[in-house]
Design brief:
With 303 residues, this protein is an alpha+beta fold. 41% of the residues are buried. It has a single domain, classed as Sandwich (Jelly Rolls), CATH 2.60.120. Strands 1, 2, 3, 5, 8, 10 and 11 form a 7-stranded antiparallel β-sheet that branches. The protein starts with 9 loop residues before the first helix and ends with a strand.
Length: 303
């Protein structure tokens, strides 16, 4: 990834969330941005992801952690998730570390510094099967080894994306709920959990908080980005269109986020994928500021 100054042009500064939009994010737990990426940048993402699916890598992960989401061709024409795409493909990494994206995340979260936490390349084929659905979940549940609760995700489609394509849907205001029914299974990625159990957990959490489940499919024009808080329930339905739904998710952490020990019920410690890959700090703990895997994409002090 190319080193760039953490500055915005005057035109880019106009694309930052307004005070009203920041309040919307704080109240609702999600925000649809202005146009942050050009057609050329999005088309480069498509071209680079096509090459990736054919086997191209600028560099490969030294190992695959046990819980990594990583589609390979032998899995067939199912929904694809590939973690660490920013690490393995330089073109994609350069686009996803665009300072403007980090600046928007900083404004929404109130953080001065924004780092990448994880990125995932997503491909949802045109199919109405159950394998093409992302069940209801919130990201913080499987980021339990992180200290921060200000983390957030940018969902970036590579085309106009609406309900027919199974766009991402938000459970409005759910980031303000208190959680009920949490146990060790909550630390598993949604791919490793029962969708019906997750649906029931959503219902129980809404009931516990005296709230209603208000699901909002977000229609996202090409070049625009949907941001959601790490505690916001979200998911997506099947792609009922005649072409694949292609996107990338950029999970971001504020500069204060650190690894923390998270004990499981059997006494062992939870591990996140980073814990197998990132460098260690002076205490021997996983360093979630490792620039190889978690590069800074915005520094309000100018870097």
């Amino acid at each position: 990834m190319n080193a760039r100054p953490f500055t915005l042009t005057a035109a880019e500064a106009e694309l930052l969330p307004s005070a009203e939009e920041i309040r919307f994010y704080q109240e609702h737990g999600w925000y649809l941005s202005k146009r942050l990426f050009t057609d050329h940048e999005i088309d480069m993402l498509v071209e680079a992801s096509d090459k990736f699916y054919l086997g191209y890598r600028d560099r490969t992960l030294p190992l695959h952690p046990p819980r990594i989401a990583y589609w390979t061709p032998e899995l067939g024409d199912v929904q694809r998730h590939n973690d660490y795409i920013h690490y393995e493909v330089a073109t994609i990494g350069d686009i996803l570390t665009k300072p403007l994206l980090g600046a928007v995340a900083a404004v929404l979260s109130g953080a001065e510094v924004i780092r990448v936490f994880q990125t995932t390349l997503i491909y949802k084929p045109a199919s109405a099967t159950a394998t093409n659905v992302v069940p209801w979940h919130f990201d913080r549940s499987y980021w339990a080894t992180s200290t921060s609760e200000r983390m957030l995700t940018a969902f970036i489609p590579m085309h106009d994306c609406d309900e027919s394509m199974g766009t991402i849907s938000m459970v409005d205001g759910s980031h303000r709920w208190d959680e009920v029914g949490a146990d060790d299974t909550n630390t598993l990625h949604f791919n490793a959990r029962d969708p019906e159990q997750l649906e029931e957990l959503l219902r129980r959490n809404a009931e516990y908080n005296g709230s209603h489940v208000r699901k909002i499919p977000v229609r996202i024009p090409k070049g625009h980005v949907n941001f959601h808080h790490c505690l916001t329930y979200h998911g997506s339905g099947p792609n009922r269109s005649d072409r694949p739904r292609r996107a990338v998710s950029v999970h971001m952490q504020d500069g204060e986020n650190r690894w923390r020990p998270y004990p499981l019920q059997d006494g062992s410690l939870l591990t996140y994928n980073h814990d197998y890959l990132v460098r260690r700090n002076e205490r021997g703990e996983p360093d979630y500021a490792d620039p190889d895997y978690c590069p800074v994409i915005w520094d309000g002090a100018g870097g």
